[in-house]
Structures are given as C-alpha cells and as structure tokens.
Amino acid sequence: MRKQVAYLGPQGTYAEKAAHILSKLANFQTPIFVPCNGLHSVIKSIAYNNCDAAVVPIENSVEGGVTATLDALWKFPEILINKAIVLPIKHALISDGELSSISEVLSHPQALAQCSEWLSENLPNAIPLPTNSTSEAVNMIKGSKFRAAIGSKSLIQIKGLKELAFPINDVPGNCTRFVLLSRESNSNLANIASFAFSLISNKPGALLKAINYIADFGFNMSKIESRPSKRELGEYIIYVDLEINNQNNIKNLLELKNKLKPLCKNFVDFGNYFSENVELD
User: Which domains are delineated in the chain?
Assistant: First the structure.
C-alpha cells in the first residue's frame, strides 16, 4: 500500500524537497505526497490518521526551534520522529517587478526572519507580510510590480517569475532540520534521542538535577530548549536532544529515562532516529 506523506505546501517549498528526500531514505515505495496549508494542518494530518507520515521543520540554525512542531510533539505523544535531515537554506527574492519598486515582501515568518538584515539594508521601507509558506507567498505576488516574495530559486521556474537577488539569507550557513513523523519508531539506527519533560517542582536545582543525570550517564546534549506549557505562567516544558554514538549510549538511554521520569510531571519520548546532512542539487 502506497504511503501518504503530508508536508507544508504548495509545490516548490523546502518542505516538499525534504519530503521527497526523507521518503526515499525511509524506503517508501512511490509515496503519495499531500501538500497542506500551514504547519498545523500537516501535524493534524498525521495526528488524526489522515496520512501515514508527515514532514515538518523542527529547527533552524538561525531562528532556533520551530514552535508549532515542538508544541505538536508535546500535544500528540503518539507521534514519533522516524528520521531527520539537515537541509541547506538559500533564499531568493522573487518578483514580477523591479527591486526599486518593491514596497511589500511576502514569505513564511521563518524566511522573513532569516532575511531581516538583508531586507533592512536593501528594502528598508518595504513592509514584511507573513504567509503560510514560501510557495504561497510566490503565488500571491504574481502579476504585481510592487510585491516580492522570499523563497527557493526553484519557485522561479515553477511560477514564471524572476530573481531580483540571491542569496539574501543573513547567515550563509543557514540550514533547517526537517523530520519525518510517523507512529512507528526507528531506534535500531539512531544518532539522536529526543524527548521533553515538565518538572514536578519549580524550585532551585530541580532542572539542574535532571541535567546532572544526563551528564552522569555520559550523554552530550546537542540541544536544550524551553517552551511555555500554556497552562500557567512560569511553567515550562524542556526539550532535549541527546547524541547517540555507540551501543553503550543506547543501552544507557532507557535507564536514564527511567531515572528522569520520577522528577517529571510529564515526560514525552519523541523517539531515537538518524539525522544526516544533505545537499541540494
């Protein structure tokens, strides 16, 4: 049976590229790709069993964690991270008009933030307008001489527009980690373990005790990030990525989690998975 894979659409987004790469790495045979309008729609498609898998961005090297994805993983604990790739991001300014006439710049909020310095220097009077995706932004500027969009160069060929500037991202090494979500674990081959927890008590040393357990078991944290629980002010969820580099790490991982759980009000395991860097053609 062919797998249905949801991603942030429409055609031409970085998420679509990631969906194709991750589906190939997961050995999906002729998958059906389902573009969704907005990250929340992508997450719901897997959470409510409308698709077999979903591809979403989880972290950017410039802007940090993608909050919609992190919040969804906490909200739907049955969803697991199966695989991950790190995709280089190089943004282009796309339009039907000329650079001198641009007064509005449209794109996904992450893309706008990743190009904010370039925009302030080159289009200081242009109004940034957020959209659900970079591809949606490009669709919205067609036929306009005063609007431009930020997105992948591949969108220029798809939409028949022109490149005004490239690359315009503020950091040359800009990259985004995309993850393949499913209800199946993939712990046999893994170099990252991800989980999140909220603490039982909010008192001095509570978080330090949890972090010390991680260190005592010999794990290196490649990420630690906090998000508000949305239940009350001052209550936070801690998101952690641990590096796995040998079989001893994997054996110790279950013991570590069992040690952490008594400290936690809630503990959600996102799974162990393999993450790798990829290059675009």
Answer: 4-88+174-182 (3.40.190.10), 92-165 (3.40.190.10), 192-277 (3.30.70.260)
